[in-house]
Specification:
22 strands, about 500 residues, 5-stranded parallel beta sheet, about 25% helix, single chain, globular, binds dihydroflavine-adenine dinucleotide, alpha/beta
Length: about 500
Amino acid sequence: GAPVDVPALVIGTGYGGSVAALRLALAGHRVTMLEMGQEWNRPGHDGRVFARMTEPDERSMWLRRRTAMPISHLTGVPLDRPIKLGAGVLDRVDFAAMGVYCGVGVGGGSLVNGGMAVRPRRDYLAEVMPGLPLDDFFARHLPLAERELGVNHVTEALLEASPYYQYARLGRDTAQASGRRVVPVPNVYDFAYLEQEAAGQAPGSATANEVIFGNNHGKRDLTKTYLARARATGLVTVQAATRASGIERAGDAFVVRAEMLTADGTVSGTVVYRAPRVFLAAGSLGTTELLLRSRAAGGLTGLSEELGFGWGPNGNTMLGRANHVWQPTGARQSTIPVLGIDNWAYATGQDRVFAEIAPFPAGIDTYLSLYLAITASASRARLSWDATAGRMILDWTRAHAAASVTAVRRTFDAINAKQGSTYRVDLFGSDRTFSDHFTYHPLGGCVLGTVTDRAGRVRGQGGLYIVDGSLAPGSLGVNPFLTITALAEQIMETVLAEDLRS
Ligand code: FDA
């Protein structure tokens, strides 16, 4: 059919897309957002919008007939189970040697993530993103992002006394016993609500095993913050279950083709939009794939040769330690982490590690201490288009993760030595103690200042912008969404002032 003309199109409704939509709308521009996942606002058969981590179903994973859990095994028993195929909220994209988890739905990664909103280190940003105007970024854009996202801190009562944080206290005490520094980790989960649910006065979410398949309560995901504000302007339309499949330059505008999806992911129709301004916010994988695909199809020419480069998993490395029987981690565990082990004050180069003390809510005491470490790994890989297979590939190998594993080993060998404890070798299948094969934090593919200029403008494509995690150079040293949000704020400020002055 004839293209639908819209003034501004935003592809993706995660952090970058939500910031773009809000700032465009507040400046008076009409915005259409395309989102391949569902609008998560209708209760399912059990009265809940999202399934619990421990009770997966067709709401849990994106187009899979079997779960693909990060922790795949426990004491020799595989944990994944068959589920009904559905357009669920958590995707795992499997490349040759790397599985990438992404949130799918209106709200993107904010629906599934752990809510940790950590400021990046200024010296590290200067190292990995030279040219970023850091004074402004730290003085204005980060605090703005924190306010809009509703970042808050765990209360003393929860951290020091709640049974739900026993695992965090043990993780802290065992780390400090080896001279490791432990720091608080801010979050967007409402800790006042967490206190209520822990006291049995409100429906449980963090205390009821909800996280990677969505939180039914407590978490200030983007649908409650940026997207709510954007929609309240009356200028923003969100088309859910609509997946952009190609972009073509057409004179002064772009023609964007999209597929409409049913609840089991079948393509039920297509729709074509035409817009003079398009903001790409489909995440590191989604945005890079759209550009690679559109270039291969001939729709976009003259894109930077650096498209697809600079990809990394933010050094993500998960591991478990086995505690002694006198060191219980608790049968009840909050899914929202609040503490991290941080060696950045005394380590250098690729040995720098920031490890969140993670929950493992199993309903019984497992004596397992779980950690998700983020290292300053310098390994980068390349996303490219495989024309024969008609899909995107990633040349990451297991060797790329070796430096991360070495760094993490140094940190946790010391804790094990002091405690007389050992690693859990049963969590990721038989051939690995450290998870060097998946990430929650895909970053890069369209690195700021290479594929785009400093303000996210795609080079050689006036009117096309990138505002998401694909801009970050494979590593940020901390959990990424706060940085991505602030970066999108900085970009939108410049774009609105310089390109969209009416
Ligand atoms: P994001 O991935 O949020 O959004 C992209 C959106 O685009 C998605 O909704 C997707 O469905 C959509 N899309 C993709 N392709 C499309 C297409 N072709 N057409 C239409 N729509 C398309 N970070 C952090 O800082 N603290 C934390 O605690 C955690 N924890 C965590 C846990 C888990 C389980 C995961 C998977 C991830 C985290 N993260 C995290 C990472 C964080 O969620 C992630 O970095 C951000 O969501 C990335 O934001 P973006 O705006 O780049 O994309």
